[in-house]
Amino acid sequence: MVQVESRKLSSEECKVLANITKSARKGTPLESERSVDDIARGIERITSNDEFQLLIASDENENIVGWTYYYVAFRLMDFISGFFPLVSEHKDTEEIALSLIEASKRDTVERGQSRLEIELVFPSDEHRAHSEKYVELYRKCGFQFAAEEVHMKSDLNIIDLPELHLPEGYKLRKFSEITYESLEGPGFQTLEDSMEGLFLSMSHAERKVTVEYFFDKSKSHIEDASLILEKDSEIVGFIITRLKDDEPEIGPVGLVPEVRGQGLASYLLVSVLGSLKDNGSTCAYLDTTITNLPAQKLYRKYGFEDVYYKQFYYWSP
User: Fold this and answer.
1) Is the pLDDT of residue 91 over 80?
2) What residue segments make up the domains of the chain, in order of their start?
């Protein structure tokens, strides 16, 4: 019988989870040279942070046999990042893992959330192969495939940017000058018309929260690389750039359908890359769904290359 609970952990219990982590990842692409003590310190930071929920599984003898955690500080949606749950060597490994996933689902419902999502990152083919057992577990618990994305990088030191001109009738403005209310409608229209599978897998309420997150001005952005495109005083496009791990990450990027095919996406992207380059950035990153071939073609034209892939699965009550 497996018991799953969420509670604050002692340092010794964090060390137990660290040993489980070290053992479960041995011989896999996730094997790390980090010490058990270092891993334990990371787990202590998680268990003391209210933005995360940590669940532990114990057997009938009250021995901790597995754990998982996820991000809970987002409206409507919770997020699992990485290859979890992690379970000790045990005759009932699958049962323990499934119990942890089911407990995560129950907790999501109890807190009034509408979606639990897992992101699996594949820096290599070995990571993709290793993910198969996790995908099987989550599918058994009712999770559905949402999307696969490619994370891309452009080396700004080696690309040559063309001089492009904005067609007559269009005007560029800074993101900081525009209200959220002005951006919400075009944001919805652009993203709902896109081929971005992750956004399209969400409910309307979840999409609204996501659009609010994309255009949240309380999150710092790079002023000269976050641009809004207008025509006749109406917003028809946008490109937002923020720092992530001290590197510029571009997104969202979008144009409303009626203005596409005029080279405007190229103009926005070249403007942003040029600004980043002028301000000393050496690279830029972005994500796009692998099925969005027109976007990939555009990005590759300006030096973006694949870095890694990631898949998303989700469950809704």
Assistant:
1) no
2) 3-142, 154-307
